[in-house]
Amino acid sequence: MSGVDVRAVVDARGVDVAFSVPPGRVLAILGPNGAGKSTALHVVAGLVRPDAGVVRVGERILTESPGGVQVDTHDRRVGLLMQDALLFPHLSVVANVAFGARHGKRSSRAASREVATRWLGEVGVAELAGRTPRQLSGGQAQRVALARALAADPEVLLLDEPLSGLDVDVAAAMRTVLRRFLVRDGRSSVLVTHDLLDVVTLADDVVVVESGRVVEAGPTATVLAAPRSGFGARFAGINLVRGRVGTGSTLVASSGRVWHGTLDGDVGTATDEPVVATFHPSAVAVYREEPHGSPRNTVEVVLAELDGRGPAIRLRAEPQSDGSPGLSADITADSAADLRLAPGERVYFTVKSREVSIHRAR
């Protein structure tokens, strides 16, 4: 498969970005609303013509400005999956997917239908082949849209918030389907998302875009562990612990501390598999003395900062032993007053195992 190189300048939208995705890797583009993330994807897809720039997939030049090269969208072999499934309402599920196969390879109707049936099975909705889009749930429609994108056999797959709006269970199932595809066939993929779980489970590399410019880039683990941009730091605000699979539903951190949680469906049983544990600061309880009881995860930390600008008081601890950002806890103002905390003090953070999710790391 082929890598993709992008330089896109869109003056009207204040966008000037450049990035590359090697073959077989997934790049996540992060940034606040209006930063230019979707514009970059639409330039690659051929939906937006840049004022200046180049889009190259392997040896093929799809866009070159001011040289005048602008390959039509339907000839790019670039798949685009968005939040809205955009299925054809008058076609059955299998006909929608067959359209993608016929569009991508110019194959016969019979061959396209065979490809469509195979991809519907791949994404787990083969039994829905005869339904129409109005008979599908949101999660089912997204699976069909993914099957249609893959049936076209794209060299590059673009994912523009495809899991946004889905409920937690459906999003988790779709994430597993996406991961299985993305790691299997070696295509280059670009993902726009606001969800940390999408990034840690799907993306090899990260680019952070602010005000139409790339302000941070690097491997996912590096950017999340030590963000260097304002948005990167805010994005990584959820607690994240890195380690490897332990026995049972556990993560073993580099410090040797064992974290108990719930394993995501894509986590294997190999004890050396790299994983991450995530949990929200609001799930953390804070004590001055080491507690005993139901919470299975207890860690002693040194407070680095107290932030009262939000609806809760956020306590931030000093960095973890592997250099990752310090853990955070959100507590009420009343609790903060009772505890009378200050930076530099040692306290205990506890979180119940059911609040901790353990996911495969990239």
From TrEMBL:
UniProt cross-references to Pfam families, sorted A to Z: ABC_tran, TOBE
One GO term of the biological process aspect: molybdate ion transport
Domain Mop: start-end pairs: 292-360
Keyword Nucleotide-binding found: yes
SMART domains in alphabetical order: AAA (SM00382)
UniProt superkingdom: Bacteria
Listed GO MF terms: ATP binding; ATP hydrolysis activity
InterPro entries cross-referenced by the UniProt entry: AAA+_ATPase, ABC_transporter-like_ATP-bd, ABC_transporter-like_CS, Mo/tungstate-bd_C_term_dom, Molybdenum_import_ModC, Mop_domain, P-loop_NTPase, Transp-assoc_OB_typ1
Keywords: ATP-binding, Cell membrane, Membrane, Molybdenum, Nucleotide-binding, Translocase, Transport
Residue stretches making up the ABC transporter domain: 1-236
Family annotation (PROSITE patterns): ABC_TRANSPORTER_1, ABC_TRANSPORTER_2, MOP
Alphabetized Gene3D superfamilies for the sequence: 2.40.50.100, P-loop containing nucleotide triphosphate hydrolases (3.40.50.300)
PANTHER family: ABC TRANSPORTER I FAMILY MEMBER 10 (PTHR43514), SULFATE_THIOSULFATE IMPORT ATP-BINDING PROTEIN CYSA (PTHR43514:SF1)
Name of the protein in question: ATP-binding cassette domain-containing protein
Native organism: Mycobacterium yunnanensis
